[in-house]
Amino acid sequence: MNDGEPRTGRSGPPTIAIVGLGEAGSAIAADLIAAGAGVRGWDPVAAAPLGVEPAGDEREAAAGADAVLSLNTAAVAKGVAEAVAPALEAGQVFADLNTSGPELKRELAEVVGGTGALFADVALMAPVPGRGIGTPALVSGTGGERFAEILAPLGMPVTPLAAEAGEAAARKLAQSVFTKGLAAAIGEALAAGEELGCGQWLHDEIERILTGADAALLRRLIEGSRLHAARRSDEMGAAVEMLEGLGVEPRVAAASEAWLRSLAPGEVAARSGPGQ
Q1: Rg for the chain (alpha carbons), in Å?
Q2: How many CB atoms sit inside 10 A of residue 49's CB?
Q3: Cα–Cα distance measured from residue 42 to residue 163, given in angstroms and rounded to the nearest whole number
Q4: 70: closest CA among 107, 37, 92, 98?
Q5: Contact, 160 vs 100, CB < 8 A?
Q6: Chosen CATH of 7-164 out of 3.40.50.720, 3.40.50.11010, 3.30.70.2330, 3.40.640.10
Q7: How many angstroms from the chain centroid is the CA of residue 239?
Q8: 225: closest CA among 190, 188, 262, 273?
Q9: C-alpha dist (Å) from residue 132 to 36, 100, 156
Q10: How many Cα neighbours within 13 Å face the side chain of 232?
Q11: How many helices (H) and strands (E) does the chain have?
C-alpha cells in the first residue's frame, strides 16, 4: 500500500493493467507496449497478446499498476470493478472504458471510491480497431486528470471533463443517438432503394451528401426542420406510406414524421383539417 498520494513521483515507464483482451483491449495493449509502457493483462477466455505479461486473474493484473483499464462490456463492468477492488490502492486509477449509461458509471465510482483509488469514466469516441491507443477519448471522474497524465504521453488523445463520474458516458451516448440513428436511417433508406430498383443510385446519393457535409448542412438540418416542420412532416408521412407499400418497416421514417409534427403541432393540425 502507498501513502494515498498519486503515483506521480514514480520513475520509469508506467505499468498498465488491462482487464479484457478482446479486439479493443488487445489493440490498445499492443500500442501501449510499443509506446514503452509495461502491460499486464487478464481475460477469462482470450490469451494475452505478445508482450503482455499474463496475470492469473483480475486482482493479480491490477496489483501495483498505475492504471487499470476495464475493456469488457457494460453487462459485466460492475462485476469486473468488484473483482478488482480488493487489489486497488490509494493513488491507482481504475478506468472503465466500456460504453454504458451515466448511472452505471456512478455505481462503479462508488465501488472504486471505497478502496481509496481514483475512478475514471472513459468514453471512447471512435471505433478502436485501426486506431488503438490513438482513439479519441473523453474522461470524467475523480481519476480523470490522472488518467490523462498517464495515457496522453503514451499516445491517447484524452480530453478531461468534470470530476463527476458519468459525464463522459453521457456525452458519448448523446453522440450515439446521432451516429447510430444515422446508421439506422441509412439502412432503412437503402432497403427502400433496393425495393424500388435504385439501390446503387441511392447509395451514391447518400455518399455524395456525406462526403460534402459541412457546417452549412448541419445548420440547414437544424433550422430547416423547425422552419418547415409542417411541410416536411407531410413529406415523411408520404414516405411512411410508400415504405409500408414496399414491405419495408418504416421505423425511422415514422419516428421522423412524429418528431416533425411535434415541432409545429398547431400548424400541422390546421393543415390536416377538422375530423381528419
Answers
A1: 24
A2: 18
A3: 28
A4: 98
A5: no
A6: 3.40.50.720
A7: 31
A8: 262
A9: 15, 20, 9
A10: 20
A11: 11, 8
d(CA 132, CA 30): 8
pLDDT digits (tens, 9 = 90+) for 39-66: 999 999 999 999 999 999 999 999 999 9
Q: pLDDT for 168-190, tens place per residue?
A: 999 999 999 999 999 999 999 99
Task: Note the pLDDT tens digit of each residue in 147-168.
Answer: 999 999 999 999 999 889 999 9
pLDDT band at 120 (very low <50, low <70, confident <90, very high): very high
What is the C-alpha to C-alpha distance for residues 172 and 100, in angstroms, rounded to an integer? 9
Helix, strand, coil distribution of the chain in percent, nearest 5 = 55, 10, 30
The span from the CA of 224 to the CA of 21, in Å, is 46
Amino acid at the residue 12:
G
Position of cell 499492443? 30
166: which 3 cell numbers?
A: 458519468
Amino acid identity of residue 238, one-letter, is A
Q: Which three cell numbers stand for residue 217?
A: 448542412
Angle at 209 between CA 198 and CA 200, to 5 degrees: 20
Distance CA 173, CA 170 (A): 5
Kindly state the cell numbers that stand for 6.
498519486
Are the beta carbons of 125 and 136 closer than 8 angstroms? Answer: yes
- C-alpha separations of 102 from 25, 96, 126, 151, 272 in Å: 22, 12, 18, 22, 41
Other C-beta atoms closer than 10 Å to the C-beta of 68 total 28
* The residue type at 53: E
